[in-house]
């Protein structure tokens, strides 16, 4: 039976009371699913309670509610276990022949009355008869037309249950057939029976949320933000903290309406403790929820990191219908893309103390305080000790060691052998209780330390489990909580010689238990033996000494032991990185290398290690290149300069020293990094963190949290640096700092003290050089502030005054601002900007462009020099009005040749690697308006200039492009630095379309002989065809042939097209060529190119997908004939390609099915009927459901086949997708269900064949499901 299914007849085992509770739970879930609080559902909870004929009453205070099971916002359910025939209905609704006042009241309110009869299982006619009887009873009531009446039998009830997973879990548990370990909302923290389970919100527990800048909150204050985070995030939520800090109880409280406001919907809760070996597995449960498109909040307690990562990635990819909350005491570096991490920590004894007094009131407040303090606020440890306290006993006289003895022994007699065995077992973080397939036993390995056998230690496991200090997950065991395990392990470490310990764990083939031993050592950073072993492992010739070449397992060990000897590790990293052969290349894709970066970031948390860590990270950063998606050393260094969530407690002075080192470096990449760090230091409230919040057992948080005064000092310091750098001689640095401060202005005006500092900063920057970016930022701030309902008049006046002060008041500042400023918020440059005008942005752009042209004219007649306009004359950044300025410059000068020479001189003095030449384009445009001959002269100069010739085509003005222009451009074709891509413009730009076709063909022939020339042709023709109807005969037969030749050439290359840019153009060009031309020889060549590429890649070819699909759609018969005409090996590769290597869309899906049927029918090879389905779209998902149906084309193809059984076998072989996420069994089940519909086909040959294959498929699915369940259990039931 499916996970969320139930046999309706099993419901017959429910009692009257349980039936009523079931209906109430369903009503609550239904109301909550409609977006309302389940509190609007009321029920007595007792079948014998006086209820006026009302069992369950739904009263939602809204006008409409129509969920499919509850039709009106005011609905009464009457729960009846026995049958309800017509006479029974009459008696129930109208006792003594008089309509019940309750029902009459429902009619008056336009409500609903529903009878639910468990014993009834009605046919449609029986159901109609009962509803008719209900209507007969009320027909004389004046309001009966507005009353909704319904009758639910147990089939309807079972259908309703299937809609709500949490209710399904409750029913299954009540019936004793539940899924092992899965529960609805309830007392997940498992308090003793009869014990009070009220959430204790005293101080002593802090909760850190990612949305709170790392600032810890109390339990009471954190409940609301946690709920909001879960409700709004698309990510999984990971709740971490040591065992015993109350994680599970806090998660339980999130669903409790009596705690705070806006509780999570408890009717959606699906809970399991992975330590209970839930069946189905957590992965299978999640996949079923996804497949059924259920809404649910899945809570997984004691969820290992690997399982969390897998489930989190799945939840994030499918959207927000399913929320995932996982709970665990240990956290590895969860991916921020898929996880929000909440950390719970005990910082005082208060909560544990109150819990003790609640559970054990007889121990008294003094004993409760003593226990809670000894346990460091850990509730689990506190409760274990309290169970051993006798009435009237005082614990004040007991030492910590004696209290630990109580904790270990509890109510049992002292057992030195058991204690010794527990100490041995605690030396590793976790261990297996089974023997491996090779016969190795981790219990045997641990036992050799003190002469115990596997069986002796195995018997010990039961005793430790009874004392609640051993946890189990499948065959894995771990001593927990950490407060006990670490104490026992510390004792064990001192009981054996270090050499003996190392020789036991470091034996080849014991990698896993060695790693677990390292994990335990990492939690004992104060222990001398742990330090000695960790330091030995880090020696240059030892197992972890070669840090840059570690495999995954040693890298994991390095993470574990890092907190034990941070100074030794830091020195070892220093030695490795400062080796003369260290270059840092190609390390971004090496996980152990990421470990080194993570550890340097973690070590930098300590102010004493910060300077050295930062220095090493800087050295690494010197060798890094930009790689999207990689978290590199530069990201970590930038993080250190955030005021919050920085991951370090380094002082402000230390961080500024780091920033200054970068800004004053002789290395350009360091100066660029310094600007990033400066930006982070001035950033607003949207801080993010990628810092590591756990580091063994050492205290960790998100870094320093400056108070108000410290934040003001921070802001002032970074503003001061920005001003100083903004006025520096280094133009790159100065412009960067000015832009950074301008971008930060909007978020920095929140405080009066900072406001005055910013005003002074703006004036200082403006006095040195007009601060256009700042002026634009202030104008934008004023624009948005004036739209706010409440705004400080003082702030408004301050900004208004500063805006007037920074407004450009001379020609140079106006040019730098209007013509040469970067393209962000450029509408603020327009004094006539009208916020109510729909075309305001377009009109503003035109006005500012006209202003830029005018400024060019004024500059031409001024005494200013072009050098005054550096560095934005040729900056590669987007400066939208630079070309307009160039036009004005040309129009305003009386000596254009002189200006031209000055422009060339400035260009040659500019050392920037990447340049923009739009200023030259604008200047040539302006000259061309009045002196076309001179414009040609300048263009001829460009053709021989080493930089300008590279972009020559793009420098031609917007007028008819002549053959002279073409000749000029073709003259640079063979220059090595020419950007061939620029020639695409000649094939599509309007100014070029009048060129003689023969000349364009001449250019194309030359391009085909040059590297990347074919791509330029395809880009150009693709642009020309873009937006045109498929029926338009463009761009002419000769160019279409050239386009097809270019496509052939590109396909024959050993290049890929991962971005798909060439494919888009190629598909358009090929479509035009195949649709309008019949050059059989060229088409044959095109097919040769396609199949040669497929064969060359052995069928693994994902590039040019759109082009090949277009080819198949336009010439399907020719394509299919070529597909199958060559050797058997080639046919196999091509079938593989057709089935799975072309992408998401099946290759033949664009071909009319009748065409395919006709081709197969005309073929002399019956195997074609088996081959062709591999390119068909067989399965179609039904929208808004988890169902699948066979595609209608697949059915048509099947019905046309001469031997449908062979086609059905082909369908069956294609049941498995080529790639998938989640459960393959679920996918196969959905497709097999669709296949099963063919059993009812009207043709016997199809029906009989489908039935046999369907039975075989069901067996295959069962095997697959069992395999997945075993794999899930193996992967989910681990501690590390």
Key features of this structure:
6% strand, Rossmann fold, 8 domains, 5-stranded mixed beta sheet, 1280 residues, alpha/beta
Overview of this structure, please?
This protein is of the alpha/beta class. It has 8 domains: 8-170, no CATH class; 179-347, Rossmann fold, CATH 3.40.50; 361-409, no CATH class; 412-432 and 444-501, Arc Repressor Mutant, subunit A, CATH 1.10.10; 522-684 and 692-705; 852-976, no CATH class; 979-1151; 1166-1280. It contains 55 helices and 17 strands. A 7-stranded mixed beta sheet has the order 6-9-10-11-8-12-7, with helices on both faces. The chain has a 5-stranded mixed beta sheet with strand order 1-2-3-4-5, with helices on both faces. Helix 10 links the parallel strand 10 and strand 11. The protein is globular and about 105 Å long. The relative contact order is 0.04. Residues 47-51 have low confidence and may be disordered.
How are the secondary structure elements laid out?
Layout: H1 16-33, E1 41-43, E2 56-59, E3 74-80, H2 86-93, H3 101-108, E4 112-117, H4 124-138, E5 148-152, H5 154-162, H6 165-175, E6 182-183, E7 205-208, H7 219-232, E8 236-240, H8 247-253, E9 269-273, H9 282-291, E10 296-301, H10 305-318, E11 322-328, E12 339-346, H11 350-359, H12 364-374, H13 379-386, H14 400-409, H15 416-425, E13 431-432, H16 442-447, H17 454-466, E14 470-473, E15 476-479, H18 482-493, H19 498-505, H20 511-521, H21 528-537, H22 552-561, H23 566-577, H24 591-603, H25 607-621, H26 633-639, H27 652-663, H28 668-681, H29 708-726, H30 731-748, H31 752-768, H32 772-785, H33 793-806, H34 811-819, H35 840-860, H36 882-892, H37 896-909, H38 918-930, H39 932-944, H40 963-970, H41 985-988, H42 997-1008, H43 1013-1025, H44 1037-1052, H45 1061-1076, H46 1080-1096, H47 1105-1114, H48 1116-1124, H49 1128-1140, H50 1153-1162, H51 1168-1171, E16 1179-1181, E17 1188-1190, H52 1192-1200, H53 1204-1213, H54 1224-1236, H55 1244-1276
Parallel strand pairs: 3-4, 4-5, 8-11, 8-12, 9-10, 10-11
Antiparallel strand pairs: 1-2, 2-3, 6-9, 7-12, 13-15, 14-15, 16-17
Helix pairs in contact: 2-4, 9-10, 11-12, 11-13, 12-13, 13-14, 15-18, 20-22, 22-24, 23-25, 24-25, 25-26, 26-28, 27-28, 28-30, 29-30, 29-31, 30-32, 31-33, 32-33, 34-35, 35-36, 36-38, 38-39, 42-43, 42-44, 43-44, 43-45, 44-45, 44-46, 45-47, 47-48, 50-52, 53-55, 54-55
């Amino acid at each position: 039976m499916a996970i969320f299914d139930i046999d309706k007849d099993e419901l017959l085992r429910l009692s009257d009371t349980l039936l009523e509770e079931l209906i109430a739970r369903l009503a609550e879930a239904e109301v909550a699913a409609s977006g309302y609080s389940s509190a609007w559902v009321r029920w007595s909870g007792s079948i014998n309670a006086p209820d006026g004929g009302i069992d369950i009453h739904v009263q939602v205070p809204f006008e409409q509610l129509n969920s499919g099971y509850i039709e009106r916002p005011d609905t009464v359910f009457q729960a009846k276990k026995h049958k309800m025939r017509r006479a029974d209905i009459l008696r129930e609704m109208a006792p003594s022949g008089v309509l019940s006042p309750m029902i009459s009241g429902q009619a008056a309110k336009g409500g609903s009355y529903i009878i639910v009869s468990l014993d009834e299982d009605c046919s449609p006619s029986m159901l109609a008869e009962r509803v008719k009887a209900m209507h007969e009873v009320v027909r004389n009531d004046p309001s009966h037309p507005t009353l909704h009446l319904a009758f639910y039998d147990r089939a309807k009830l079972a259908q309703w249950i299937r809609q709500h997973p949490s209710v399904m879990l409750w029913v299954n548990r009540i019936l004793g057939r539940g899924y092992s370990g899965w529960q609805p909302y309830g007392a997940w923290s498992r308090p003793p029976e009869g014990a009070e389970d009220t959430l204790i919100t005293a101080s002593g527990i802090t909760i850190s949320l990612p949305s709170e800048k790392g600032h810890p909150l109390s339990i009471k204050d954190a409940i609301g933000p946690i709920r909001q985070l879960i409700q709004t995030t698309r990510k999984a939520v990971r709740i971490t903290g040591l065992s015993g800090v109350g994680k599970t109880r806090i998660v339980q409280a999130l669903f409790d309406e009596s705690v705070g406001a806006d509780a999570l919907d408890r009717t959606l809760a699906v809970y399991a403790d992975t330590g209970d070996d839930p069946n189905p597995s957590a992965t299978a449960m999640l996949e079923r929820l996804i497949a059924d498109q259920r809404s649910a909040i899945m809570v997984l307690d004691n969820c290992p990191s690997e399982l969390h990562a897998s489930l989190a990635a799945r939840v994030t990819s499918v959207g927000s219908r399913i929320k995932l909350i996982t709970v665990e005491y240990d956290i590895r570096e969860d991916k921020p893309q898929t996880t929000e991490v909440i950390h719970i920590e005990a910082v005082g004894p208060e909560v544990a103390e109150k819990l003790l007094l609640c559970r054990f009131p007889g121990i008294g407040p003094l004993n409760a305080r003593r226990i809670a303090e000894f346990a460091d606020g850990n509730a689990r440890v506190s409760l274990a000790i309290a169970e051993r306290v006798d009435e009237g006993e005082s614990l004040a006289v007991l030492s910590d060691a004696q209290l630990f003895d109580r904790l270990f022994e509890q109510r049992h007699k002292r057992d030195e052998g058991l204690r010794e065995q527990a100490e041995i077992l605690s030396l590793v973080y976790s261990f297996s209780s089974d023997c491996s397939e090779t016969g190795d036993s981790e219990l045997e390995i641990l036992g050799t330390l003190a002469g115990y056998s596997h069986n002796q230690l195995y018997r010990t496991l039961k005793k430790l489990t009874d004392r609640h200090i051993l946890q189990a997950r499948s065959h894995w065991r771990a001593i927990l909580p950490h407060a006990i395990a670490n104490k026992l392990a510390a004792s064990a470490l001192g009981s054996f010689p270090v050499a003996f310990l190392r020789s036991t764990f470091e034996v080849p083939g014991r990698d896993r238990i060695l790693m677990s031993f390292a994990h335990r050592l990492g939690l004992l950073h104060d222990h001398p033996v742990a330090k000695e072993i960790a330091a030995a492992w880090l020696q240059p010739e030892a197992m972890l000494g070669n840090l840059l070449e570690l495999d995954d397992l040693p890298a994991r060990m390095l993470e574990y032991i890092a907190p034990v000897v941070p100074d030794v590790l830091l020195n070892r990293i220093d030695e490795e990185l400062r080796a003369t052969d260290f270059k840092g290349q190609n390390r971004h894709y090496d996980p152990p290398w990421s470990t080194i970066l993570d550890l340097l970031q973690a070590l930098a948390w300590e102010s004493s290690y910060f300077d050295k860590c930062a220095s090493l990270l800087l050295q690494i950063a010197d060798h890094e290149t930009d790689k999207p998606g990689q978290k590199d050393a530069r990201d970590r260094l930038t993080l250190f300069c955030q005021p919050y969530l920085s991951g370090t407690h380094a002082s402000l002075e230390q961080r500024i020293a780091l920033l200054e080192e970068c800004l004053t470096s002789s290395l350009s990449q360091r100066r660029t990094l310094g600007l990033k760090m400066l930006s982070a230091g001035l950033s607003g409230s949207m801080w993010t963190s990628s810092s590591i919040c756990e580091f063994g057992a050492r205290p960790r948080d998100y870094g320093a949290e400056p108070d108000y005064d410290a934040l003001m000092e921070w802001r002032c310091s970074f503003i001061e640096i920005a001003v100083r750098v903004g006025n520096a001689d280094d133009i790159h640095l100065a412009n960067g700092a000015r832009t950074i401060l301008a971008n930060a202005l909007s978020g920095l005006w929140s405080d009066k003290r900072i406001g005055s500092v910013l005003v002074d900063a703006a004036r200082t920057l403006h006095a040195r050089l007009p601060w256009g970016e700042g002026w634009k930022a202030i104008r934008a701030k004023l624009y948005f502030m004036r739209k706010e309902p409440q705004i400080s008049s003082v702030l408004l006046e301050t900004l208004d005054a500063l805006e007037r002060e920074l407004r450009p008041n001379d020609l140079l500042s106006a040019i730098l601002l209007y013509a040469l400023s970067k393209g962000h918020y450029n509408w603020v440059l327009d004094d006539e900007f009208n916020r109510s005008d729909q075309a305001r942005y377009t009109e503003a752009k035109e006005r500012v462009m006209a202003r830029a042209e005018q400024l060019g004219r004024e500059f031409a007649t001024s005494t200013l020099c072009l050098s005054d306009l550096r560095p934005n004359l040729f900056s590669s950044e987007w400066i939208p009005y630079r070309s307009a300025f160039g036009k004005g410059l040309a129009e305003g000068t009386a000596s254009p040749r002189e200006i031209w020479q000055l422009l060339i001189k400035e260009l040659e003095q500019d050392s920037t690697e990447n340049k923009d030449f739009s200023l030259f384009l604008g200047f040539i445009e302006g000259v061309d308006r009045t002196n076309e001959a001179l414009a040609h002269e300048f263009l001829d100069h460009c053709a021989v200039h080493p930089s300008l010739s590279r972009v020559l085509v793009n420098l031609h003005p917007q007028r008819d492009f002549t053959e002279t222009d073409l000749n000029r451009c073709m003259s640079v074709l063979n220059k090595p630095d020419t950007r061939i891509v620029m020639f695409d413009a000649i094939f599509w730009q309007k100014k070029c379309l009048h060129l003689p076709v023969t000349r364009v063909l001449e250019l194309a022939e030359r391009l085909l002989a040059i590297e990347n020339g074919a791509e330029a042709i395809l880009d150009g023709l693709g642009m020309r065809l873009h937006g045109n109807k498929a029926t338009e005969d463009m761009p002419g037969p000769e160019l279409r042939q050239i386009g097809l030749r270019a496509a052939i050439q590109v396909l024959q290359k050993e290049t890929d097209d991962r971005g798909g840019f060439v494919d888009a153009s190629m598909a358009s060009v090929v479509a035009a060529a195949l649709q309008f031309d019949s050059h059989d020889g060229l088409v044959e060549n095109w097919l040769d190119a396609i199949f040669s590429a497929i064969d060359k890649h052995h069928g693994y070819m994902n590039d040019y997908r759109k082009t090949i699909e277009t080819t198949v759609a336009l010439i399907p018969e020719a394509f299919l004939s070529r597909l199958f005409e060559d050797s058997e090996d080639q046919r196999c590769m091509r079938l593989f390609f057709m089935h799975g290597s072309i992408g998401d869309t099946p290759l033949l899906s664009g071909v009319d099915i009748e065409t395919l049927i006709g081709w197969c029918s005309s073929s002399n090879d019956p195997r074609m009927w088996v081959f062709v389905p591999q390119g068909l779209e067989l399965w179609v998902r039904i929208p808004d459901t988890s169902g699948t149906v066979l595609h209608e084309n697949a059915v048509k193809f099947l019905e046309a086949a001469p031997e449908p059984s062979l086609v059905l076998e082909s369908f069956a072989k294609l049941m498995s997708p080529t790639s998938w996420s989640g459960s393959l069994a679920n996918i196969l089940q959905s497709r097999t269900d669709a296949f099963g519909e063919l059993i009812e086909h009207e043709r016997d040959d199809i029906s009989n064949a489908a039935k046999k294959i369907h039975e075989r498929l069901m067996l295959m699915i069962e095997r697959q499901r069992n395999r997945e369940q075993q794999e899930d259990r193996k992967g989910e039931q681990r501690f590390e």
